[in-house]
Design goal:
ten-stranded mixed β-sheet; alpha/beta; 294 residues
Length: 294
């Protein structure tokens, strides 16, 4: 319960002095970059000063070397993406870098910019529940090969695992499934270690007009009066756009297919894909957040 106690203390004591987010967005496909910047801008809060978004486009060195005019390429690439990043008061910076080892370069850039949230966009075929489960079994039994990953879109499970293990800050793995609009957000809570997700519910409730549905599968909200009070305050501030899923009702595929975005903690995601829930394999665009420090 230590994690929960720290979250509750932070919420009650520091609610007027939230730490500013310094987000590093990493992507290879422009569409994914646009989607990630949209999410990042929704996490920004106007009342919190000095929040930042840095957008990083990494290219394999051989592709980077083929670009004749990097400034023209950069302007074309970020046309449209910047519109999403700048929907707010946060300072926005853009980068294009060549890389032979995407994981190491993401980590070094994060350290250089002092980012406290790193969002990585990957291909939807890379982080499927079936492949991740198979990879984790292989990793536990055999260990992982050490060759560097040199493309974000095909970043291997080893690369994702390495990034999660080596990054000392919060990491979000974004599985892009053609995200265009964010009107319906679903947030499952399946593990107590994922209680940090409430930080993002709070930000989404204050910033967006999206409907946010929280599935408290483990009953943590009702079992802790302080947390229930926090959730009710969020609901009030969002004019009831934030709701709690009724656990007496079944979550089915018809509900899931109406969603635009799922935000879930890493431990909860592992539990979800390991379960017999059929719709876990039919998720829309999904942001999986692993928090290292609280």
């Amino acid at each position: 319960m230590a994690l929960l106690d720290k979250f509750l203390k932070k919420t009650f004591v520091d609610q007027e002095t939230d730490l500013p987010l310094n987000i590093l967005v990493c992507f290879s496909k422009p569409e994914t970059g646009k989607a990630l910047c949209k999410i990042a801008s929704y996490f920004m809060q106007a009342k919190i000063k000095k929040e930042q978004i840095a957008s990083l486009h990494l290219l394999p060195k051989e592709e980077y070397d083929k670009i004749e005019n990097i400034e023209t390429f950069k302007a074309s690439l970020y046309d449209g993406i910047l519109n999403e990043c700048r929907k707010g008061t946060a300072m926005v910076r853009t980068f294009i870098k060549s890389s032979d080892d995407f994981v190491s370069d993401i980590l070094s850039t994060s350290e250089e910019l002092e980012s406290n949230l790193v969002l990585i966009g990957i291909g939807k075929t890379v982080f499927t529940p079936q492949l991740w489960g198979s990879y984790q079994k292989f990793r536990a039994n055999q260990g992982a090969p050490q060759a560097p990953d040199n493309t974000l879109d095909t970043l291997s499970h080893r690369g994702v695992s390495s990034l999660l293990d080596r990054n000392s800050k919060t990491t979000g793995i974004f599985i892009d499934n053609n995200l265009e609009t964010i009107n319906e957000i679903f947030i499952p809570i399946l593990d107590k270690t994922d209680i940090h997700i409430f930080d993002y519910i709070k930000r989404l409730a204050e910033k967006t007009e999206a409907k946010v549905t929280l599935w408290d599968a483990i009953g943590v909200v009702d079992s802790i009066p302080e947390l229930k009070k926090i959730f009710q305050t969020m609901q009030k501030s969002a004019n009831d756009r934030v709701s709690l899923w009724d656990n007496s009702k079944k979550i089915d595929y018809d509900f899931i297919k109406q969603l635009d975005l799922v935000i879930i903690g890493f431990e909860g995601w592992v539990k979800l894909i390991s379960s017999a829930i059929t719709w876990s394999h039919s998720l829309p665009s999904t942001l999986i957040i692993r928090k290292k420090n609280i």
